[in-house]
Amino acid sequence: MPSLNRRRFLQYAGSVAGTSLLGALPARADGFPVKPLALVVPYPAGGASDTSARIFGESIAKTVKQQVVVENYGGGTGLIGANKVLSAPADGYTFFHGSINEVFLAPMLNPAARYKPQDFMLAAPISDATIVLMVRSGLSAETFDRFLEQARQGKDKPLTYATVGIDSIYHLMGDALAARLGTTFLHVPYKGGAPALQGLAGGEVDFAILPYQSSFDAMQQQGRLRILTSFSKALPPALKHIPLISQSRPVPDFEYTISGGYFVKAGTPENRVAVLRKAIGEALAKPDIRARLEAEGRTVAQPIDTQAHANQVFDRYMTRVTQLVRSVGRKTNGG
């Protein structure tokens, strides 16, 4: 009998030890992921967000040992893509290549948005994108300040400009720039960066405010557009040929970048978010990926380790966007 009791005790002790050990295992303990992941990009293929997502998707897939399928949903200044993520289960299998445009500005300004920023959770920040102003080839301005002079002189016929959509940061920047100059611009929203770029190159609009892509340089060399300025305080080495806004005499302080990261639906288990964060961090740590992102105009973030850190970054984004909206005199939904 004592030996039987001893066996039972050892079985119980082993069970307890096993349970404790399971609790200490890495975040992959529940087997996540066991099927392909959907990486939602809220714009059509070919734009800056799509390019960045595909760079990350390749690396994340290798780390988690599952396919990462990039899904593009253009339109609504990112609303369609954001809703796609929020309509999926909060299980980590659908994550969002998002920015302050879709996660923060859209629900704050667009009455059609049926969600709030807090419906998303930031898994990890990835980069700040360089924003540039480009003009069509037929516009005579060779410099940004000369462009500003033309804008002031053309009050009877406002210049038209392209962005990725209504109430995007690029739209707000256009409004704010016009206000600084005491003039007006006519906003022409497109369904994403790629269509907006095509509109500019085709002469449909006078200028565009968009996140930089390396393809812009080739199009400039072909004479299809001209890049007049970046709105950054500093630039990655690959972009040193682009003038900084600080070189402008009228608006040297008109500095803007757009922050982006990977988001999941709020309520996603934190152990699964941790798996994604680790995979994103490994991508961010790779020199070749950082170089590719910098060549696309990105100031790349450093990897982060905890959800608490990610939450702090989320709160900083929220504060910055709120200040931007107030600076252009816009009211947010519900106030």
From TrEMBL:
<dbReference type="Pfam" id="PF03401">
    <property type="entry name" value="TctC"/>
</dbReference>
<dbReference type="InterPro" id="IPR005064">
    <property type="entry name" value="BUG"/>
</dbReference>
<dbReference type="InterPro" id="IPR042100">
    <property type="entry name" value="Bug_dom1"/>
</dbReference>
<comment type="similarity">
    <text>Belongs to the UPF0065 (bug) family.</text>
</comment>
<feature type="signal peptide">
    <location>
        <begin position="1"/>
        <end position="29"/>
    </location>
</feature>
<dbReference type="InterPro" id="IPR006311">
    <property type="entry name" value="TAT_signal"/>
</dbReference>
<keyword id="KW-0732">Signal</keyword>
<protein>
    <submittedName>
        <fullName>Tripartite tricarboxylate transporter substrate binding protein</fullName>
    </submittedName>
</protein>
